[in-house]
Design brief:
By secondary structure, this protein is mainly alpha-helical. Helix content is 58%, strand content 5%. Helix 1 packs parallel to helix 11, helix 4 packs parallel to helix 8 and helix 7 runs antiparallel to helix 8.
Length: 375
């Protein structure tokens, strides 16, 4: 199918409403739009550069943990949660009680990402993996009883208060298994000669249009992008997450998806998506460069600490995965006394590596702000 000839689908009459039935996607696609081809070349180049950095940066998994936290925070933010990146890396007991529900949603998303990426080493991207990931995402949060880990068996809608005034009504639940089966086949159909970035752009649109779960479709649909790229080895590590771009351009993101359904304008969505990959890949590459320089700077400063250097190096490694710490955190991680931990933190403040952020004399919290600023 030529992108220019694409028809998004049609509305099917149900008892008291019309649901949208999208065109299936497991088919050959012809991409002959010059602008898309230019964007595709640039996106592929920058994605390759980002992937290269993930292969050469020492201890890259430490930094990917923060990429994952950032993605969880941004993706959840699109759906209305209000958690800062600083709060996202804190422990639950350090979060104000009125913010803990939002915090739990972000932490669930972190767990869901880690689970899904880990499972890709055992079996390919599949609907089963998405359902299992959805179950983790829904555990113990608002809406958690809306069939976690299961495709919906009732009608949902987007916008409005009910089906009568909905902005968009996705496919009838009876159509969901077949549509999701077609989508899963599309991910792995080797007889279809389509660039992977085009395939996952179409897949993200299709997933959001099917809206297969009763809740949290947006978060699973955005995670699908990263899982696809890792599964098809465009990324060796899960380093590309588009939710930050989508959140910053939220009206344009929703508009681009809606234009496909309303005007058959798949080309506009593909351009938006490829620009998201270009911008995010370039930002990710620059983040790795900045972190590498920051790491070198602080490692050189730590060398001035004499016999404390060894523990300071261990603490620095710890801070890359937990950039908000307390005295107790440092004490437990380094297996040192409380007094030694306090002294170590004071040295880190003196070296301008950490900042104390509470202003209290007790229950103090320390931030690796120069590192967090990259996210």
């Amino acid at each position: 199918m030529n992108l220019k000839d694409f028809k998004a689908g049609y509305f099917k009459q149900q008892l008291q409403y019309k649901s949208f039935y999208p065109t299936t996607v497991d088919r050959q696609w012809l991409v002959d739009d010059p602008k898309i081809n230019v964007l595709l070349e640039k996106a592929t180049q920058l994605l390759g550069e980002l992937n290269a950095f993930s292969l050469i940066v020492p201890d890259v998994d430490l930094f990917i943990r923060m990429h994952i936290v950032k993605e969880a925070n941004s993706s959840s933010g699109i759906e209305g949660t209000q958690t800062s990146i600083d709060e996202a890396v804190m422990k639950k007991e350090e979060i104000a009680p009125e913010k803990r529900d939002d915090w739990q949603e972000v932490r669930n998303y972190v767990d869901a990402i880690n689970y899904a990426v880990g499972k890709l080493a055992e079996f390919p991207l599949s609907n089963r993996l998405l359902r299992d990931t959805h179950s983790i995402l829904m555990a113990g949060v608002r809406g958690g009883r809306k069939y976690p880990g299961e495709f919906r068996v009732s009608q949902n809608w987007i916008g409005g208060s009910n089906l009568s005034d909905a902005v968009f009504i996705p496919p009838h639940p009876d159509d969901v298994p077949g549509l999701m089966g077609d989508l899963e086949k599309f991910w792995h159909d080797e007889e279809i000669d389509v660039p992977h970035l085009i395939k996952i752009a179409i897949s993200h649109y299709q997933f959001e249009t099917i809206h297969p779960f009763l809740d949290r479709n947006g978060r699973i649909g955005r995670l699908l992008i990263t899982l696809y790229l890792v599964n098809h080895q465009l990324l060796a590590k899960p380093t590309l997450y588009l939710s930050d771009f989508f959140e910053k351009h939220r009206p344009s993101y929703y508009d681009a998806l809606s234009r496909v359904r309303e005007s058959n304008d798949l080309i506009h969505w593909l351009k938006f998506f490829l620009n998201a990959v270009i911008t995010t890949s370039d930002k990710g590459k620059n983040t790795f460069i900045g972190i590498f320089k920051l790491r070198e700077t602080f490692e050189n400063r730590i060398l001035t600490l004499g016999r404390k250097t060894q523990n300071a190096k261990k603490l620095l490694q710890f801070l890359y995965s937990k950039p908000i710490v307390t005295v107790q955190d440092v004490q437990l991680e380094l297996k040192i006394s409380e007094r030694t931990a306090r002294d170590m933190l004071q040295e880190m403040i003196r070296l301008e590596l950490l900042q104390e952020v509470t202003g209290y004399k007790r229950n103090r919290v320390f931030s690796f702000k120069s590192y967090l600023d990259f996210y």
